[in-house]
Amino acid sequence: MAAFRAACRVARTAGFTLIEWLTVMVIVGLMALSAGQLIGASMDRTDRVVYQTLLMDRVDAMWSEYLHTGTFPDQVTDDARVQFTVSACGPLCRTIELRPLSPHPCEYWRLSTDGTRGAGGLLCW
User: Most buried by CB count within 10 Å: which residue of 57, 72, 75, 98?
Assistant: First the structure.
């Protein structure tokens, strides 16, 4: 009987069982899946913040030109990642629309010189 127990201990301490390996692999897979989703969501949020910052910079530049010249510009400087469109929303108001050149769930953002803002999707601002 003692020889049987000794053989079991040797076999047991020699390595992991198939069930243990499969359990570890499933846990690692679930953790990798969760990390991938978090990274993807983080990238979308980062893009959204970059686009909003670009838009706010252009509105600030429009206000700066208005304060220096007394008129709003008809266009703004472009960026390699986005396309800007300027439209009038009143005699002392201009709206800038930003559309990313690469696909994004929000599609577009709008910001006017009077503070009105909008976007192509929910929770984009």
Answer: 98
Q: Which of 90, 65, 89 is nearest to 76 (CA)?
A: 65
Q: Are 105 and 121 in contact (CB under 8 A)?
A: yes
Buried b (16+ CB within 10 A) or exposed e, 58-83: bbeebeeeeeeeeebeeebeebeebe
Query: Global pTM?
Result: 0.67
Q: What is the pLDDT of residues 71-123, one digit of tens each?
A: 999 888 888 889 999 999 988 899 999 999 988 889 999 999 999 999 998 88
